[in-house]
Amino acid sequence: MSPRSARLARLSRSVTFSACHRLHSKSLSDEENLKLFGKCNNPNGHGHNYKGLPTSRVLPLQIDPVSGMVMNLTDLKEYMQAAIMEPLDHKNLDKDVPYFSEVVSTTENVAVFIWDSLQQLLPQGILYKVEVHETEHNVVVYKGEETIVK
């Protein structure tokens, strides 16, 4: 029998959190906001049951031959509790989360917030992507990409 080669895997864990928000840009007039965001610009806001799904990188995450794991799920659960559940669950994103005081609380920006929060907690280079499901039809995937603004 030949020695087994190292196996690589990606690990994901999902959480569901409930939050409300109002899509409204301070850079636009009330009329422009209403035209752009429609019913999601309701002054009283609206809510979602979001699903967050961070995924770890393939490299250098080899399946440990002793534990059989890429990463301990208990550790990942604790990181997700601190980065996602505590700041976002049952919150008004625009009023309770300082990040969204100057950033429109779109699902795209929720994904960026989760990415940035997890990056501070997870070992360097381990996070591959963050997937946020606003509804069963609306999903944002963010992989930490940035562009240079000129």
UniProtKB/TrEMBL annotation:
Involved in the biosynthesis of tetrahydrobiopterin, an essential cofactor of aromatic amino acid hydroxylases. Catalyzes the transformation of 7,8-dihydroneopterin triphosphate into 6-pyruvoyl tetrahydropterin. Pathway: Cofactor biosynthesis; tetrahydrobiopterin biosynthesis; tetrahydrobiopterin from 7,8-dihydroneopterin triphosphate: step 1/3. Keywords: Lyase, Metal-binding, Tetrahydrobiopterin biosynthesis, Zinc. One of its GO terms (cellular component) is mitochondrion. Its EC number is 4.2.3.12. InterPro entries: 6-PTP_synth/QueD (IPR007115), 6-PTP_synth/QueD_sf (IPR038418), PTPS_Cys_AS (IPR022470), PTPS_His_AS (IPR022469). Belongs to the PTPS family. Its cofactor is Zn(2+). The keyword Signal does not apply. It holds the Pfam family PTPS. This is 6-pyruvoyl tetrahydrobiopterin synthase. GO terms for molecular function: 6-pyruvoyltetrahydropterin synthase activity; metal ion binding. CDD domains: PTPS. One of its GO terms (biological process) is tetrahydrobiopterin biosynthetic process. Gene3D superfamilies: 6-pyruvoyl tetrahydropterin synthase/QueD.
